[in-house]
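Figure 3 (text version): structure tokens given as input.
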């Protein structure tokens, strides 16, 4: 079947803060913004805590960089961290000009403090609705910018390559399939939280961008590092509501059912320890048969509805009043430090392909992300991608060979609902064996079970195939890293190893070869 492609200067996939920011930075060019959700939906609008930037008295980008590196497990890219923290304050000022309304007190920015930050530097909006405010302002600007075309409710199924370069995408909306062409494609598809049974991420966080990039031959970096937020509200809903880090920054404590403040014995910073340490401490309490709670009654109390209106609202929906009740908590998959390997301009290893936001791995997080650095990374590096693309477009024609063939269009994908049961199995396997605490035995079991699902052909939708593929890649990378570092904890290798004091870089072929070798060893036993 021959389809005439629609031609653009740049195609941006994803409409969170990273995707919207890239599009805005390309004003004046013909940009297609493809999003499988309504415009602006996704992980970004769920972000509560805020954006970290050194804008307070006594603070500096150097101190912000020091804090970022300190929690990274010694493998963060120092150059990327420097870019993040140096550019951050000016990026925030540009957002304010754009119309983002950060909270203020008598004209001064309200700056909060969160875990592992040495200074108050968290800008927030409406208390705990920072992501929603950013998305509101960015979405409005995108809608008002000439040259940006929006394709809502379209899912990108494949990156199109021509002579070793990415040159477009194949996207589907229901039974309709379309070929879009551009000399530059930007992945801004967000995270992978839905690979796990318990997550704070919305339903669309299904690892699509990682799968697309891997199939196109792009290098992946640090994919074994998955961050689990320590304080998801254990309320039985899906996804689990997030109890923002800012609550602990405001003085909330963690206790078990006996009232023991267990973090005092776990880390010198107690509740303000890095996320990986707090998450594993909560997990150990749960494994020991305890029930764990976040207690903000004394620290926040009557101020809760005003200071944390988002959290207050969903607590009430679950029959809880945080002014009076301790809030039951459990860890949940929250953020992926790894992703598509990129340079400081967002370029991947494949010509024509850029990435930014959570789907990308710039190296700023290393093995563990500092609280409120995620929105900042998406914003700062989206600007850099836009700057790089403006120069690229000047020297690159948006021409395309005619008559590109799309074959078997009707068989490319089936509705995701047909895979619900198998996707549920994937999520259970990943939670049980590739979650907070990992072992060789468990990871081998996970890889074997996921491989069996792949071999049976049980997964039919493109979304399900993406999830299955990336789940296996993460488990394989986690098995290869025989140490514990940051968010990657191996119970059989509980200490960090000097030989692993670096990030990891993989290709799909290398990961598949690793899996084949492992399966041969298992079958030979």
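Below: residues designed for each position.
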């Amino acid at each position: 079947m021959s389809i005439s492609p629609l031609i653009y200067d740049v195609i941006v996939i994803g409409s969170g803060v990273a995707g919207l920011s890239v599009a805005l930075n390309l004003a004046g060019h013909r940009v297609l913004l493809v999003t499988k959700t309504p415009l602006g939906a996704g992980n970004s609008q769920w972000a509560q805590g805020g954006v970290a930037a050194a804008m307070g008295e006594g603070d500096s980008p150097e101190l912000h960089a020091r804090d970022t590196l300190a929690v990274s497990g010694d493998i963060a890219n120092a150059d990327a961290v420097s870019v993040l923290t140096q550019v951050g304050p000016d990026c925030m000022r540009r957002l304010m000009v754009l119309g983002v309304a950060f909270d203020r007190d008598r004209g001064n920015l309200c700056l909060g403090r969160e875990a592992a930050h040495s200074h108050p530097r968290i800008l927030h909006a409406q208390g705990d609705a920072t992501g929603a405010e950013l998305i509101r302002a960015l979405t409005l600007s995108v809608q008002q910018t000439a040259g940006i075309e929006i394709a809502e409710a379209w899912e990108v199924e494949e990156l199109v390559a021509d002579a070793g370069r990415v040159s477009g995408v194949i996207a589907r909306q229901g039974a309709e399939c379309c070929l879009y062409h551009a000399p530059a494609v930007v992945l801004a598809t967000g995270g992978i939280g839905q690979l796990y049974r318990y997550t704070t991420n919305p339903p669309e966080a299904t690892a699509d961008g990682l799968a697309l990039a891997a199939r196109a031959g792009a290098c992946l970096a640090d994919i074994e590092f998955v961050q689990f937020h320590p304080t998801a509200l254990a309320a039985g809903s899906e996804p689990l509501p997030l109890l923002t880090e800012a609550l602990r920054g405001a003085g909330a404590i963690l206790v078990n059912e006996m009232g023991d403040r267990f973090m005092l014995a776990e880390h010198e910073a107690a509740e303000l320890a890095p996320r990986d340490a707090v998450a594993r401490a909560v997990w150990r309490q749960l494994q020991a048969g305890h029930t764990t709670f976040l207690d903000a009654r004394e620290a926040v109390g009557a101020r809760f509805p005003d200071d944390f209106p988002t959290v207050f609202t969903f607590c009430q929906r679950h029959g809880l009043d945080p002014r009076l009740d301790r809030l039951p908590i459990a860890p949940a998959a929250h953020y992926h430090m790894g992703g598509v390997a990129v340079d400081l301009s967002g370029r991947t290893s494949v010509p024509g392909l850029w990435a930014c936001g959570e789907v990308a791995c710039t190296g700023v997080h290393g093995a563990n992300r500092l609280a409120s650095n995620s929105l900042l990374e998406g914003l700062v590096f989206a600007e850099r991608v836009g700057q790089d693309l403006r120069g690229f477009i000047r020297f690159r024609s948006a021409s395309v060979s005619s008559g590109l063939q799309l074959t078997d269009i009707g068989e490319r994908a089936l509705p995701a609902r047909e895979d619900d049961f198998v996707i549920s199995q994937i999520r259970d396997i990943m939670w049980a064996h590739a979650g907070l605490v990992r072992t060789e035995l468990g990871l081998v079991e996970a890889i074997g079970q996921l491989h069996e699902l792949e071999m049976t052909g049980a997964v039919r939708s493109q979304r399900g195939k993406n999830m299955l593929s990336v789940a296996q890649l993460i488990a394989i990378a986690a098995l290869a890293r025989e140490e514990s570092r940051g968010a990657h904890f191996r119970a059989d290798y509980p200490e960090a190893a000097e030989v692993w004091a670096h990030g990891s870089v993989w290709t799909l072929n290398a990961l598949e070869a690793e899996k084949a070798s492992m399966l041969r060893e298992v079958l030979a036993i």
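Confidence is low (pLDDT under 50) at residues 401-411.
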